[in-house]
Amino acid sequence: MYKKVFILGGTKSGKSDFALQRANQLDGPRAFIATAQSFDSEMAERIKKHKQQRGQDGWDTYEEPLELSNLLLRISDKYQVIIVDCLTLWLNNLIADSKTIDFEQQFSQLTNTLKNLNGHSGQDMTRIFIVSNEVGMGIVPDNPLARQFRDLAGRLNRMIAEVSDHVYLVYAGLPLLLKD
Question: What is the residue extent of each domain of the chain?
């Protein structure tokens, strides 16, 4: 079985650092699932910095912008530790993908996948750290697309929190345990 740790926070709050710090304390094979896509030089630089911060030592990296559930199903029995960073970038990719129209189905597929993951063979407990942005604590966006994104992110975060064993909110670099 996988123990699911959901980590929420604002931009540059330290949520990815917290996930990486917790994951690096654990033994066993590790996978990092990156959902970001580099559409411009600024995003390419962010991805590069994340890779440098993580280092290559002991981590297998998968870049998957859309098929997150399928990837988790394919690799879950091979790793003791998995980080998914991040759900809001995955959501952004779904919105941008013209073929994706049923977000509720996508969210349900992911939550069902998380509930049914097989653990790494021969291990008592494997862990998955799921990182996401909390975007609903600010002002109401001034355009329909941004409001749709905010609303969908809120719904997705609620669904993931529901199936997670632990939920943290990272604020100003400080992790606050919300669910244990």
Answer: 2-179
- Indicate the class that CATH gives domain 2-179: alpha beta
pLDDT in tens, 160-178: 999 999 999 999 999 999 9
Three-state secondary structure string covering 99-158: CCCCHHHHHHHHHHHHHCCCCCCCCCCEEEEEEEECCCCCCCCCCHHHHHHHHHHHHHHH
- Choice among 14, 24, 50, 149 that is catalytic: 50
| Residues whose CB falls within 8 Å of the CB of residue 44, separated by 6 or more in sequence, listed in order | 38
Model confidence pLDDT, tens digit, residues 39-63: 788 877 877 777 777 666 789 999 9
50 classed as catalytic: yes
Spatial distance between the Cα atoms of 2 and 165, rounded to a whole number of angstroms = 9
Question: pTM of the full predicted structure?
Answer: 0.91
